[in-house]
Amino acid sequence: MISFFGKCVENLYRSICYLITGRSRVVHIINQAAAISYDSLLISLVIAFVSAAIIAIQVSKQFLMSGAEAYVGGSIAIVMIREIAPGFVALAIGARAGTAISAEIANMQVTSQVDAIKTLKVDPVGYYFAPRLLAAAITVPMVVILAELVGILGGLFVSKATINLHPARYINSVWLWLNARDIYISIFKGFIFGTLIALVCATQGYETKGGAKDVGESTTKAAVLSTVYMLIADFLINLVFYL
Fold first, then answer.
1. pLDDT tens per residue across span 77-101
2. What value does the CA radius of gyration of the chain take, rounded to a whole number of Å?
């Protein structure tokens, strides 16, 4: 784990240097943004909607019995923005796009395409990593914001259907409980999670040696490692901002 973390840091540094020198093409970044976030948008929004609906079902009747149904909207908004939306979006993108990144780079490694790039005096880490890192860092926070909006609306519909909570009371509770700081932190989480997913999965793919079987094993490891690193980062961010 320590060795792998060191390789991730080294690859991040080389990617940043590659980006600073302006050698990454905009079209490559746009293509990676579409592959990482746009293609994962639907599943991310569905997960956010279903998660908010489940939370609403769990808390609505409990709040109604205690006479606190006016706080349903605020509770769902806080849970979605602080934790559910950033975390579940990152897990969805990691499972879909992260594994694809790892498999793609691992396949290039075992078929000697990476060696071919080296013969052209091009840094393979910068060439393969930089567009993916930048695309994930920019677009994952956008998906997180959309997921938060969809989740809050999902809670509204379920609250209306289950306990007949008036939408105005729900929205008013959201506005009262919602804090701009929480939104900024969720965007920051999306930035960190997106960068980690692209970096960890690309590094795992780049370190792959062997053949087709090793590509599959590397993809599985990438999914596990990206989840572990994301959870550790989530814990540290919450420790810093909410302790």
1. 999 999 999 999 999 999 889 999 9
2. 20
Tell me, yes or no, whether 28 lies in a domain: yes
For residue 7, being part of any structural domain is answered with no
| pTM of the predicted model as reported, rounded to 2 decimal places | 0.91
Q: What is the pLDDT of residue 166?
A: 87
Q: Average pLDDT for residues 12-36, to the nearest whole number?
A: 87
Would 44 be classed as within a structural domain?
Answer: yes
Range of the domain at 169: 22-235
Question: Is 217 inside any structural domain?
Answer: yes
- State residue 132's pLDDT score: 92
Tokens 């349903």, residue?
A: 72
Higher pLDDT pick, 67 / 203: 203
